[in-house]
């Protein structure tokens, strides 16, 4: 079945088509959820909430642009809405915060470890980090999405990078200590 026909059937509340769409995209969207959520269980909840929204709004998709991109935006917005409702973002005017670069030698650090330390970041830092670094949003776009200032977005990114850099350095020290 073509994607266009599948979308049309989903917009008519065809449960078999909805199950097929879920099968097609749930894996990719779950990985998006894992980036924005604190843990596996929260990511599962976010995925389910995202598909509820997707199925309720699928008739609004007009076959313009990437359908997968449309799904991803809904999934990210679902996660962000949860945090906006919890009030996790404090507005900061911290124009003198130092930006930190994080360099990773690929052989030293596993993807699982990186995902784990990103998930451990405080919500406001994790969300900004993921939006900026992993999904390529600008600070202005992040500010609009999260209802914060661009300065707060920049500050939260710098703090996230600093925390990640410290955790990676600690991990490398522990790794080197054990190998001696």
UniProtKB/TrEMBL annotation:
One of its GO terms (molecular function) is sigma factor activity. Keywords: DNA-directed RNA polymerase, Sigma factor, Transcription, Transcription regulation. Belongs to the sigma-70 factor family. ECF subfamily. This is DNA-directed RNA polymerase sigma-70 factor. GO terms for cellular component: DNA-directed RNA polymerase complex. Residues 21-87 form the RNA polymerase sigma-70 region domain. PANTHER family: RNA POLYMERASE ECF-TYPE SIGMA FACTO (PTHR43133), RNA POLYMERASE SIGMA-70 FACTOR ECF SUBFAMILY (PTHR43133:SF46). It comes from Bizionia arctica. NCBIfam families: sigma70-ECF (TIGR02937). Signal peptide: none annotated. GO terms for biological process: DNA-templated transcription initiation. The keyword Transcription applies. The keyword Transcription applies. It holds the Pfam family Sigma70_r2. Residues 114-163 form the RNA polymerase sigma factor 70 region 4 type domain.
